[in-house]
């Protein structure tokens, strides 16, 4: 480890670093415990792509798969048993963080099946079942911030379930998410139940926005020259961070509202903005730009392992989530100029649709690879 761990500096500025990765190897080797102690990792997020990578080529799961086969479980039931086990163990490892932070951090996120992203009732039913079966106070259920997902978020919060609202791209989606959280807390408070133990994060995606907009800008650049070409180049790699900074301004307005203040007086925790999709896709950009530019109070950044390593080594830490906000407003407004001609609403809508597909595909792929493994082990 380097002499200065920049992740520990980030923590002093009010941001928590969570890791976007989970596997049984990490748990059983003691590496996860070590990362919490030495690197300052304060939570974990998982998704089907992460579990596919963990389970597919790894013999550490074979004994449990064989037990599932003997018990006559379906492939999906075996998958659930494996992942629920990993989530429970990770929750137990993070429990001291959860207790020391008074329920602010120490969460482990698991996503409900992406196949039901457009079905409110099924999403809520699965969120309740996951929460009950995993049975840990520091598990967080991931629900997509889709038009169908948000009513499920509201009801899950009212039921006392911690929720990670995922797949947020537009500021409008984030604002709707924040109010869904508030309505859920209000319903719970009206029923006379404690709201001080519930936590939620709003996962706002970053690098996918820049990747998509940069592709559109590159297409425009093929026909552009002179001043227009300069303007297009100036926008590249800038939109996701600007968009996130404006979302943070909306967060500040929401927590100043009377409705939020009334809940805060009853012990409610703020729903923190979580920066997700933070590994830089373009090699021309800094590998830690989605960390450096968005450090600030009441936020979380969830990083894949390679970005954690890069950040420990060379993050340039300062509280920047509220710097250059006017420039961010100007940049977002400029996208509709004829010279740039990017329809941000359309981009965000497409990203949401693609985002659901990006969760469904690895989930299906995971079930296929697990089925192949089940068949192989059943034949032995």
UniProtKB/TrEMBL annotation:
Known PROSITE patterns for this protein?
TRANSALDOLASE_1
Under the cellular component aspect of Gene Ontology, which terms does the record hold? Answer: cytoplasm
Task: Supply the enzyme class, top level.
Answer: transferase
Give the record's keywords alphabetically.
Answer: Cytoplasm, Pentose shunt, Schiff base, Transferase
What is this protein for, i.e. what is its function? Transaldolase is important for the balance of metabolites in the pentose-phosphate pathway.
NCBIfam families assigned to the protein according to its UniProt record, in alphabetical order: PRK03343.1, tal_mycobact
> HAMAP family in the record, alphabetically?
Transaldolase_2 (MF_00493)
Q: What is this protein called?
A: Transaldolase
Look up and give the organism this protein is from. Petrachloros mirabilis ULC683
| Gene, per the UniProt record | tal
